[in-house]
Write a structure and sequence with these properties.
The complex is a heterodimer of chains A (248) and B (256). Chain A is an all-alpha fold and 248 residues long. Chain A contains nine helices and no strands. In chain A, helix 2 crosses helix 7, helix 6 crosses helix 7 and helix 7 runs antiparallel to helix 9. The relative contact order of chain A is 0.13. The mean pLDDT of chain A is 90. The chains are: A mainly alpha (248), B alpha/beta (256).
Chain lengths: 248, 256
């Protein structure tokens, strides 16, 4: 057990050193206040933290709400679609057409309809998450081993028992995989939405700092958004690992 | 422990199902009885509809003609005392060995502690003690097989239905598992129905060998095989002769 663990820690240590070195070299080459060196970043972050925190919390709240909402809407629909051939025949073409459309282009419409507050941002990110989770879970439900369903029924499982003992554990990993993969897109879409409209969230904070030519403040915002993505990714990755220990 | 095995009777049972808008007749006018405590082997050409027969006996599939009776009563759904082992064993890969063995009892509403106790006993009787916390992926093919059996033992089944459970296992291990199945059957009063495509397996495990014809599956003949479970049966001349008889019956059933 110690060998692989040490190797893993070593690999991550190397990755961090590699990224920091690349960052440092790039910062040194461009030599601009817009890209401080890693060493200078701590000071920049510390100086801007009080201003940053409310914006950070707003963005975190929006992204978490959207991820939750998108998942809650997508999972039941995916279950139903995968279960019923007729419904799936109806929905599959709809999904096929809508899935590749970049949801972010709907932002102007949402701004017109929902104003400049939380609503258009949450709706837009929810839409992005919804389609990703829907597609992944629909495939996962279809891949549930038939024998497991049969033996659960034979062992006397109720409809709810089958759901709890077969469908959910078989598909939950797919939910977290799609969230892990989707979190990057979700934060990107949120950034655009916040940067374009309103006066809240990290997207606004970053672009406002940019227009004020306060580059250290701008960079602090960028780091905060990166940390938000990294933390959410880590959480989903850990959940996925915990839920897939049974897989080979 | 169950005091008595269940009796299973097919009465003019038929099944027609719909595949891509076409009516497919899986089996027709199946009529035979497996007496209580008997071990029956069902053999027939692959894809002939034997599996559907087992699903009907498990109460998982409703016949479109005739009926299936267990202990004289028509089935309306799965019975609590029937253990069904599908071809892929139907284990829950996301549950531990112990949770798999407990599954039936938990579905029946037994409290966790009592179910775990019973499951542990079942696991011990198939030689899986010490693997309670492992996942099915950590087990070998033979151990998975034994886990599927333990699941049936835990619910104290009086009827064990198996759909080619040993087909994915290599020859020597397969004989071990056949011995185990035979041993469990002899030590209990359980009725056992095994669907197989292996003639040797049918002759080694079936007191009654039900030979099916090609699609739609129907009973071509029933062969008595009274020496099942006698010492050295597998290596005896009688065994070879019986295998020949089954092979001929199968050939006739397919030609028909």
């Amino acid at each position: 057990m110690r060998g692989p663990l040490l190797r893993k820690v070593g690999a991550y240590a190397f990755a961090i050193v590699f990224i920091l070195a690349g960052w440092w070299v790039t910062a040194w080459l461009v030599n601009s206040p817009a890209l401080p060196t890693p060493g200078a970043t701590f000071g920049v972050l510390a100086a801007n933290l009080p201003a940053l925190v409310p914006y950070f919390l707003t963005s975190t709240g929006r992204v978490v709400a959207s991820l939750a909402l998108g998942t809650v809407l997508a999972v039941p629909l995916a279950q139903v679609c995968a279960r019923s051939r007729r419904l799936d025949g109806l929905f599959a073409p709809v999904l096929y057409i809508l899935y590749p459309i970049p949801k972010v282009v709907l932002l102007p419409i949402l701004l017109v309809l929902l104003g400049l507050g939380d609503a258009p941002k949450i709706v837009l990110v929810t839409l992005t998450v919804f389609f990703q989770v829907l597609v992944a879970v629909r495939d996962a439900v279809r891949a549930v081993p038939e024998g497991a369903v049969l033996s659960a029924r034979a062992l006397g499982a109720s409809r709810w028992g089958i759901y709890r003992s077969v469908t959910v554990p078989a598909t939950l990993p797919a939910v977290f995989t799609s969230l892990r993969i989707g979190v990057g897109t979700a934060i990107a879409v949120l950034f655009i939405a916040e940067a374009m409209a309103g006066s809240t969230g990290l997207g606004y904070f970053i672009m406002q700092s940019w227009s004020m030519v306060n580059y250290p403040r701008m960079f602090a915002g960028i780091v905060a958004l990166a940390v938000l993505g990294l933390v959410l990714y880590g959480i989903f990755d850990a959940a996925e690992r915990r839920l897939t220990r049974w897989r080979s | 422990m169950q005091q008595k095995g269940a009796q299973v009777a097919f009465r003019h049972t038929g099944l027609v199902y719909n595949r891509d808008g076409q009516a497919v007749r899986a089996c027709a006018d199946v009529d035979f009885t497996v007496p209580a405590g008997c071990s029956a082997a069902v053999i027939g050409p692959s894809g002939c509809g034997k599996s559907s027969l087992l699903l009907m006996a498990a109460g998982l599939l409703e016949p479109t003609d005739g009926e299936v009776l267990v202990n004289g009563r028509p089935l309306t759904g799965p019975r609590r005392e029937t253990a069904f082992i599908p071809q892929d064993l139907g284990l829950f890969p996301w549950k531990t060995v112990l949770q798999n063995a407990m599954a039936g009892l938990r579905f029946h509403g037994m409290p966790k502690a009592a179910a775990a106790q019973r499951a542990r006993e079942a696991l011990e009787s198939v030689g899986l003690e010490g693997f309670e916390r492992a996942y099915p992926k950590d087990l070998s093919g033979g151990m998975r097989q034994r886990l599927a059996l333990a699941r049936g033992l835990a619910i104290d089944a009086d009827l064990l239905l198996m759909d080619e459970p040993l087909s994915a296992i290599d020859a020597l291990l397969r004989e071990d598992l056949q011995d185990m199945l035979l041993d469990f059957w002899r030590r209990s009063a359980r009725t056992q129905v095994l669907v197989t495509h292996s003639i040797e397996e049918a002759v080694y495990l079936g007191q009654v060998i039900v030979v099916f014809s090609d699609r739609p599956a129907t009973v071509a003949c029933c062969l008595d095989n009274p020496r099942v479970g006698t010492p050295d049966w597998r290596d005896s001349d009688g065994f070879a002769a019986q295998c020949r008889a089954v092979r001929e019956a199968l050939a006739r059933a397919v030609d028909r």
